Here is the input.
Amino acid sequence: MSVAISVIVPCYNEEKIIARSVATLLDAMSACTPDFEILLSNDGSVDRTFEIIRGLAERHPHVRALGYDVNRGAGHAFRHALAQARGDHVVHMDADLAMDPLEVCRRFLAELAACDIVIASRYLGERADYPLRRRIPSRIYGVIFRTLFGVTIRDAMSGFFGFRRAILEQIPPLESDGFEVYVELFVSASRRGLRVVEIPMKFRHQTESGEMSVLRQAPKQFLNTLRIWKKLRRATTPARH
Here is the structure.
């Protein structure tokens, strides 16, 4: 049975915040629409995250606990949940809820009436509460992917975006396991003429969440982004005869 909205929340070592985040998210979604599901996708956490989300799913009918035991990456957690999502619209949110989930839900649904993908941006007029140690790598990566792919998207990595599920039939299957899966989704859609819109949204950095190490993650993400660039370039290069 389909629902109006599937909210996907990848989780990695979120035991400190996930119960509080889900309570906030349940309140926000209930105020937005009664027809929703929340998919908590555990990405091989080594703390009590999986145990906690299973307990949340047992207590709340709108919550589904998904996951696996080996850490595979945020992109894999997203794809794992996406394969089981039942929503006509899919919304991705980070577990720290650094953007207000009620505002995200309401504005996304309004925008998706006229576009295919909507991205909440930290860099479009709303001053983000974001430390310099995270802001600088984010900005640098933004320049890299815009240069590589020829797109104007300013913030592909905010962690908050939504799309109409029907677009998945118009783009190649997503393959990335890391954060670069979001670039893969947005660029694939843009190159097929689908409308991708960014909107400003207030961002508040959350320090209790299971943060990734930027220094450890960045080289792998860059290499995987190059792999996506090569893959998409091959897909759009006419065959020689």
